[in-house]
Amino acid sequence: MREEILTFLEKNSRIDLKELAIILGSDEISIANEISKMEQEKIICGYHTLIDWDKTSKEKTTALIEVRVTPQRGQGFDSIAERIYNYPEVQSVYLISGAYDLLVILEGKTLKEIAGFVSDKLSTLPSVLSTATHFVLKKYKDHGTIFAKKAKDERMLVTP
Fold first, then answer.
1. Mind telling me which residue stretches traverse the membrane in this protein (predicted)?
2. The pTM is what?
3. Is residue 130 pLDDT above 90, yes or no?
4. What is the tens place of the pLDDT at every residue in 81-99?
5. At a CB cut-off of 8 Å and minimum separation 6, what does 140 contact?
6. Any idea where the domains of the chain sit in the sequence?
7. Contact status, residue 149 vs residue 92, Cβ threshold 8 Å
8. Are 131 and 117 in contact (CB under 8 A)?
């Protein structure tokens, strides 16, 4: 039942527990207890709201930074990853396969602010060998949510 609960919560963390219990053929108390256990076990790590910042007045720029690093003896990539994810500008850090080792997702007000972070803080870390910065220009889909839905053409078809 845990995986089913997680599947529903991942799509909609605000789902009503009563509704979830009905869907899963269980009772509300059992569902609430199971969710509480998964929070305590850090299976559920948090709840987030997905926002389309382009529809607000707040300036927000996102960048994906590929980082090549020298792994630390006995710690691998964990030590440098921790150093990077402790910066408040950093939203996510992933160990990845390929030409680069880490993928760092940053958020800032402007391209210049992010570029300054990369050149002044990230690139100067002793283990960092190189970086490649990619700015997000437009989001089409994020966490399963489509942002750029096509507007439905509601004009009447006119034929001769």
1. none
2. 0.80
3. yes
4. 999 999 999 999 999 999 9
5. 146, 147, 148
6. 2-40, 53-138
7. no
8. no
